Amino acid sequence: MKYTFQDSTEFPVQRDFIQDLQDFLRVSEEVIPLERSAIRTKEENRAGTAILEKRIREIDEFQIEVTGYLEKLTQEVDSEDILEIKNKILETCAATASGKKDENLEELEKETRIARNEIQQLETKILSILSPFFEEGIYGAKHAYSAAVEEKKLIGTQVSSIDSMQYEYDLTFAEDMIKVGDLHELTLPIWVKAGILHKEDKIKKLDVSDFHIMSVEYEGKSLNTVFEDKDGEHKITISADEMAYLILHGDYEISGDEKLAASIDMDSIYELTKKLKKFFDESVESRKLRRVLLEDKNVMDENRVLDCLILIAGIYGKLIKECVERGYTKGEISIKIEEPGGIRTEKYLSSSELLSRLSGIGSEGLELAGTLGVTKT
């Protein structure tokens, strides 16, 4: 697919922008009311907590006042009967106060637990709605990937960022474990002792195709991977960027040894690293959004999901402006799509529809509309 503006100028992002814009609308319509509910639940819980904590303080203060008053009242009293009455009153007061405090503490814990569960359910739902949209809908984001074997299973993470926002995914893969040979056959030169009478260092080609890939880290043009044989006798580390490759056998640098380096099949190394980079696109079975940060703070804790949407709206707003400027129909956001067979189609979304749907969300939607640049129709 090739995407262009209506005047056939190439679109800056080769994606179906109209579909992404519609997805952005849907996500906003779904998550903003959920965030409102979470905020309301937190506020109600804070108010309820304040009332119960005040009750507990009042009980403590009353008990202190009663104790002080009786102690003062009986300061000059020698009568055992009266002192016994005083002690009985204090015991009853202490027991009743303790019981009432326990009741209020139990109520406090109950309300806090209910609120926490409600908030957790809302936040889980918000993340599940954002998850598929965040995968591809945030233009210009930078991505870092990692995978490692834990309990004989390869699990991964994706950390993406744009401006002050960072979002993280848990990744699961189609296979629990993969071998080097599943991606590309590879042998590496190593030094071994050989000879019957006199042991000499000789170069041996070590076939690592059957080694398990234990970890991979990939960001930008840099990649680091570790793979081992099943006995853990041999460990290979490859670090690569656009400038150079570093290859280790254990702690020994193969790539830094002139004789060994000359025997390295760099074409195979290149193919392996290329396929490892593609691995995070082609072999990921599922992605689950686990956390979103804004200015290094959890957006769920800080009630800042709307701010994340505003950030995305800022990116989309620039494209909307250019779509309208390059379009032929006033107030229409349109793109052209050219399919592989040469078939051309157009997709559009009117600014009025966009504004209408965002207005339906409330003040938050109007703020998004302003950031998108569709406040005027």
Q: How would you describe this protein?
A:
This protein is α+β, with helices and mostly antiparallel strands and 377 residues long. Among the domains are: 36-136; 179-282, no CATH class. Helix content is 49%, strand content 27%. The protein has helices at 17-73, 80-136, 180-183, 258-261, 266-282, 299-302, 305-326, 351-359, 363-372; strands at 2-5, 142-149, 154-162, 165-173, 187-194, 200-207, 212-219, 222-228, 235-240, 245-249, 252-253, 284-294, 297-298, 332-338, 344-350. A ten-stranded antiparallel β-sheet has the order 11-10-9-8-7-2-3-4-12-13.
Write the layout of secondary structure elements.
Elements: E1 2-5, H1 17-73, H2 80-136, E2 142-149, E3 154-162, E4 165-173, H3 180-183, E5 187-194, E6 200-207, E7 212-219, E8 222-228, E9 235-240, E10 245-249, E11 252-253, H4 258-261, H5 266-282, E12 284-294, E13 297-298, H6 299-302, H7 305-326, E14 332-338, E15 344-350, H8 351-359, H9 363-372
Antiparallel strand pairs: 1-14, 2-3, 2-7, 3-4, 4-12, 5-6, 7-8, 8-9, 9-10, 10-11, 12-13, 14-15
Helix pairs in contact: 1-2, 1-7, 7-9, 8-9
Short recap of the structure:
The chain contains nine helices and 15 strands. It is α+β, with helices and mostly antiparallel strands and 377 residues long.
- Report the biggest beta sheet as strand number plus sense, adding barrel if it closes: 10 strands, antiparallel
What is the H/E order?
A: EHHEEEHEEEEEEEHHEEHHEEHH
**Radius of gyration, rounded?**
33 Å
Structural class: alpha+beta
Number of strands: 15
- Which shape, going by the Cα principal axes? flat
Show unreliable segments: none
pLDDT average, as an integer? 92
- Number of helical elements: 9
Determine the strand fraction and express it as a percent band.
25-35%
Give the % helix. 40-55%
Spatial strand arrangement across the major sheet: 11-10-9-8-7-2-3-4-12-13
Assembly of the depicted chains: single chain
Q: How far do the termini sit from each other?
A: 31 Å
